[in-house]
Amino acid sequence: MKNKFFALLSLLTLALAACGSGALVEPTPTSDPFIVQGQQVFNARCATCHALVPDTIIIGPSLSGVASRAGERMPGVTAEEYLQLSVLRPGDYVVEGFNNVMLTNFAKELTGEELDALVAFLMTLK
User: For 50-69, what is each residue's pLDDT tens digit?
Assistant: First the structure.
């Protein structure tokens, strides 16, 4: 009888210890497939010239934090619109201190879905 009592007490102690850790573990968020697609477009088309690390210049400006800056670049233009236009008409949106060397054929080479996915990915860079 004593053995059963101690076994039950031990089991109860373990159960309470497991429940009482107090630390909630946040689940890993599931990546949005559309944003993943945009990241793939970025990696294939943009990463050779633009870094995602702050203050790192390859050829063009770093895009770290671009979502936070994009909405402030042109009055009356949303961040999403600015990013889209910067890809489609890069010569109109050259960042001060950089040369106008960005490729201008993305409007012909990217599908509308790829462009939208790219902008969605860039909007995650805050």
Answer: 999 999 999 999 999 999 99
